[in-house]
């Protein structure tokens, strides 16, 4: 069975640690691994807007010796012009891996079912697991560890970043608190999954309505846009209920004295985060953005190394001579 990275808990705790260790090594020596030498092609497909993800995957694939083939989802119209399964079969015959940013998680699961090559989730409505690898790398750099670090995510706790924090943070043994207004809590089954993971790793996972309770003593405070891609028409109605969850200097006085602040970007100063916080001394958002590159390269190296993901041998055609001699 091909190994994919479709959601944060596709990596065991040990595997997550291996990828993060590799990310650290690749940050120190960017050309240390060249598994895509050839060059082998990786398809990088976007059904939603992108900046960091496109730049970091294209740069990363090139640095690994490969060729990044960016596919514009507006042209490909996957699932509309051609089924997800047929697209997967076509891509899988030509490329070494598929990186996809799309809408519902079921789409990327279907891609993985039919591709025969590793599929990487570059953001779906439900998860943003590559961002979390970069976030964990950043937290480890600034806090020296992940285990037992308390991280509070404030904002739309019903969306991809919140779910990914729950699963990836729990895997890393962190105490993960997600906090958002009533009606914007995490999908209950993802919260339960995170709690089950945390029971094994010594971490914890919770949803808190009260942002003050969530931030209390936190080592890391994280936020994200209140209006995720595809939800633009809800922007106005969200503003008021989300206001108490804005990451401001005032709210941060309740976090640990040495708390760091993170944001996957793009950021809306004056909405989910104040300009003084984003541009202030606690903010590690530029390290976080850079680490997308190192963490994703590490993930690709790790995936391509898995025995299940070794290229399948094409059935050998008999040489003409042999056939004639039969
Ligand atoms: N929750 C955001 C993340 C952006 C990187 C979105 O899905 O738009």
Automatic annotation (TrEMBL):
GO terms for cellular component: cytoplasm. GO terms for biological process: citrulline biosynthetic process; L-arginine biosynthetic process via ornithine. Residues 148-303 form the Aspartate/ornithine carbamoyltransferase Asp/Orn-binding domain. Residues 305-326 are annotated as: Disordered. InterPro entries: Asp/Orn_carbamoyltranf_P-bd, Asp/Orn_carbamoylTrfase, Asp/Orn_carbamoylTrfase_sf, Asp_carbamoyltransf_Asp/Orn-bd, Orn/put_carbamltrans, OTCase_ArgI. L-ornithine binds at residues 160, 224, 228-229. Pfam families: OTCace, OTCace_N. This is Ornithine carbamoyltransferase. Its EC number is 2.1.3.3.
